[in-house]
């Protein structure tokens, strides 16, 4: 079943600058081959439920296996019969707004 998630996987207790750790997480997500898009706060991943959850697990354990306390915040949208929702949802909004989104 198609699953679109927004996930934030963040280290704790490693100082104020987290970019290098977050980059490791994103690298793991991108290596999965599933469609993904990273913004300043979350990464969206789309695919079948089991595949998406495996990517979340793998990306989480990149940090956790190093002994880094890791927090995962996730929101999931599961919808049978739909695909390409990561782009499709935005295309619908753009259409309603007349292409005026920046």
- What's the SSE pattern? EHEEHEH
Low-confidence segments: none
Largest sheet: 4 strands, antiparallel
Q: What proportion of the residues form beta strands (DSSP E)?
A: 25-35%
Provide the helix percentage: 40-55%
Inertia-based shape: globular
Number of strands: 4
Q: Can you count the helices?
A: 3
Structural class: alpha+beta
Radius of gyration, CA atoms, in whole angstroms: 15 Å
What labels would you give this structure?
102 residues, alpha+beta, four-stranded antiparallel β-sheet, 4 strands, 40% helix, globular
Describe the structure.
The protein has 102 residues and is of the alpha+beta class. It is 40% helix and 29% strand. α1 runs antiparallel to α2.
Describe the protein's topology:
Layout (H helix, E strand, L loop, with lengths): L1 E11 L6 H13 L4 E3 L4 E6 H16 L4 E10 L6 H12 L6
Antiparallel strand pairs: 1-3, 1-4, 2-3
Helix pairs in contact: 1-2
Brief digest:
With 102 residues, the protein is α+β, with helices and mostly antiparallel strands.
């Amino acid at each position: 079943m198609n699953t679109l998630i927004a996930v934030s996987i963040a280290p704790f207790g490693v100082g104020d600058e987290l970019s290098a750790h977050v980059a490791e997480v994103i690298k793991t997500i991108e290596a999965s081959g599933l469609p993904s898009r990273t913004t300043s706060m979350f990464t969206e991943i789309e695919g079948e439920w089991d595949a998406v959850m495996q990517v979340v697990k793998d990306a989480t354990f990149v940090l956790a296996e190093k002994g880094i306390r890791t927090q995962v915040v996730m929101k999931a949208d599961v919808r049978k019969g739909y695909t390409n929702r990561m782009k499709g949802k935005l295309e619908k909004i753009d259409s309603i707004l007349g292409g005026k989104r920046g």
